[in-house]
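step: validate -> pass
step: tokenize input -> pass
step: predict -> running
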Amino acid sequence: MSGRAAAPVIAPVSGAPEQRLQQLADAITQANNLIARLQSQIGWGVTDGSDAQPGQIGEYIFDNRTTANMLGIASGVPIDLASISLTAGDWDVQGAVYFQGSSSSGSDDLRAWVNTVSATQPSGDMGGLAIISTSSGGLVNMLAVPPIRASGTATTVVYLGCNATYGSGTMQAKGVVRARRMR
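step: predict -> pass
step: emit ->
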């Protein structure tokens, strides 16, 4: 049955009606206890606003580079803004990068990504890459990075990276990378 628990079987009851009702009530109690045990084993959701524990479904990890720590970007040079270390499991990972240019002539090519390889733009075939061309020098541009699936049997580092190709002026970036354990 590929990882699924067998459904509890309620045996036919015999005897007086009271005895039959008691047997049925006992079977229901046993089934409810089994459900409660399975829920605790798979890390069932919370209703009290608390964080999921490490290893549980819903575990959340993030890292960010804040406005106070914006990083200067050289034109055409890929860099990492942040990274997170994910333990074995199945994770959804996404990010966002904010670019701030002082001024620029012409258009700017802005790229943001999440990848398991440092300072390396992925192909984007499986998500994890956002690209925009803009002529909005001096303005803040935000790129939301679509999620990727990071699944493995060992600890994996995922990087939030970016690249900006621009004509003149300066460019700074900040961003956030986040992951949630899916299973």
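step: describe -> The radius of gyration is 25 Å.
step: cleanup -> pass
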